[in-house]
Amino acid sequence: xxxxxxxxxxxxLPPATRTFARLCASLxxxxxxxxxxxxxxxxxxxxxxLAVMRDAQGEEFKHFSMDLEFLLRRAPAWRDIAxxxxxxxxxxxxxxxxxxxxxDGPDQIAEDGSLGIRSxxxxxx
Length: 125
Description:
Blueprint: H1 15-43, H2 47-74, H3 76-85, H4 94-100
Helix pairs in contact: 1-2, 2-3, 3-4
């Protein structure tokens, strides 16, 4: 069975790169699910169904954020750029991009294996 997420032969890719590709695919899937719920919520009229869909979309927001955090921890250059763009006031665009990337170029993907993500057990919903 082939995997569309690889553009190079998977057996030639190191495990960390395959894991990174899996999380990129997961990030895309979570973003799609968020969009699907947005469409469903926009047309649903049943309040109980709306509540269920909003809760489900919230879970997708959480999963997307967790996937993104994993990827940012593995790609320091991506994190540097994201920090210059995310949660900033003003226009989103070229200026934010230019300010975000003033380093020496992309870093290698970290391979320490630690996510450092706290447990979600007992966390408020």
